[in-house]
Design brief:
This protein has nine helices and eight strands. By secondary structure, it is an alpha/beta fold.
Length: 258
Amino acid sequence: MPPALKALLAQLLGCTAAFAAARSGVLPAGLWPLVAVQAAAATGAAVALKSAHWWRWIHLGFLPLVVGALQLGIPPGWYLAAFLVFALIYWSSFRTQVPLFLSNRLTAETVAGLLPAERPAKLLDLGSGTGSLLRPLARMRPDCRFEGMESAPAPYALSCLLSRAQPNISLARGDFWLIPWSDYDVVYAFLSPVPMSRVWSKASAELRPGSLLVSNSFPVEGVEPESVVEVGDRRRTRLYCYLPAGPAPVLKTGIAVP
């Protein structure tokens, strides 16, 4: 079932539970007990429907925030403005189930250690966001070429602005599924568990022997990585390294985990 349909169904089930509780007379008088029952029931329905974990928090806070905002009497124009801002930032996240994740500097340093030391390399960042990985990489390895593909307008525009003085970065706005990956030595993904099997399939079909697929935090289900590298940051980030079509390169940094 598509995530948006699951979300709608969970909200409808929450409303049904609130209506049933109101009819039974077991709730105290007032609006907020109804809101609490609806939010709790919608969250429980999301769990039962096996929605992604972040949907649970959305369901838990959705109706309470709507009711609270209505009681504040905020002019409708502000809601439209907020919607447009979030749409520009998150764009198709509701469809792809890939939120905006930003890679930190320690992760960039670790990825730099995975690049070939003896020659220039070409890296593609899937869903490059604001360019938080590409900019430090481009400074650490000026001999390499770093490319990013991002679909959301706001992160893409910000990444272009911040990286305008770095000639070894190339950014594009679009769908990374639609471009060939065969020209890259490293493909980096910081997405979510949902698309990783598809990422693996495309990498296996298109990457050259010896090319490296690096997934931040989310392993490919059912596929044993060649190595797992501990970044050592506060998030305890792990980089799952795969070689879809060739022998393992020598890792230059990090701690390999069997």
